[in-house]
Structure formats: C-alpha cells, structure tokens
Amino acid sequence: xxxxxxxxxxxxxxxxxxxxxxxxxxxxxxxxxxxxxxxxxxxxxxxxxxxxxxxxxxxxxxxxxxxxxxxxxxxxxxxxxxxxxxxxxxxxxxxxxxxxxxxxxxxxxxxxxxxxxxxxxxxxxxxxxxxxxxxxxxxxxxxxxxxxxxxxxxxxxxxxxxxxxxxxxxxxxxxxxxxxxxxxxxxxxxxxxxxxxxxxxxxxxxxxxxxxxxxxxxxxxxxxxxxxxxxxxxxxxx
Length: 238
Prior knowledge:
- The protein is α/β, with parallel strands linked by helices.
- The longest helix has 18 residues.
- The protein is globular.
C-alpha cells in the first residue's frame, strides 16, 4: 500500500527510462488498484507489464471492496499476485480461497503469480517442506498439468520479508528445487522445467545477483526495493 496515482506514474516513468532497453529480463510492476490504469497508460508501448496485487473469484456482484479479473484486465493488468503472505496474515486468505482465485485467473489471460512460504516458527520446527508443499498442494488442487504450466510461483519465506533478513542463496535454492521437484511429480518434468519460480524476501541490488545465480531461482518478487526506480532498475540489470 504505497504510492498515489501521481507518485506511481512518476516512479514508472523514471523506471522505463532505466530498464526499457533491457530485453533479457521480463519486468512487471504491481501498483495499488487505484493506480493501475494510470501506470498502464504510462507504460504503454514499453517492455514493462502491469500486475494486480490481488483478485476476487467472482465476476461481479455484492462484494464491496473486491476487484474482479475483468476489472484487472480492463485496467491493463496482465499479471496478478495471489496468496501473498500479507494477504494470508492480515486478511485471512486461505489456501482454499487462493485456489478459487487461481482457478478464476486461469479462465482469463491474466497470469497468476502464486506466493507460498513458511513462517519463522515453521522453519525452526523443521516444517518447511510440510508447510510449503502443503500450500502448493492445496492452492493447486484440481488443476491440470496444462493449467499449472501457466502459473508463476513465488517462494517468499515470511521471516525474510521486510525484516532485513534474507535467506542465503543456498537456503532459497533448496526450497526452489523442492518446489520444482514437487511440480515434476504433480504435473510433469516438462511442466516443472517451464514454470518460473521467483524468490521474494528482502531482495536488494546487493544480493540479487547471488540469488539469481542459483539454478532453480528464475527471478525475484521484489518488495521494498521496488519502491525506488533506481534501486529496482539495479536489480533488473544486475
């Protein structure tokens, strides 16, 4: 929950001058709902895509405060984050409701970015595999291999978000490899190879290259460092 329309527009106008010539990396920005149309207009004709921060699973109706996939698409969104740890923690999103959101997104052309990750207590109790793969299993329940191939997964260890703590490249790689192995068993090795798995958790310009060098880390879900155009651009161009 950062940036007014004017602030978001100024930020992406600066960002596009810094990264639009970069054709080796796919870049997506996910502003608040109120700034989606403004940001999409400012980025029209650039390589930078726009995403939403959440979605509801109904097309319309008496659901005050919610946003449908059609509203996202009409505002210029081509991606949408679901299951972010803050949505789970503060707004009571569950794996079951995230599954409904995921299935709704898959009826559209909006690409889902599904977030999974463990709390610090889970890691200290040795429950990383149980928690993360349990989330994957419940969030992807009822999906075909073809549908799974259209999803982006983001692993975000909750203990490393906004805390300044970052999972070491090896810790992050271990979980990414675990998720990819699960995808191979749940869908197919081909699907697992094709699904992009992002790391999110205090990604900054000074640690991005070491994280992205890992074989199973395909990109980053950037939080605080994305609020400043120059900082975000350094991550894109590391």
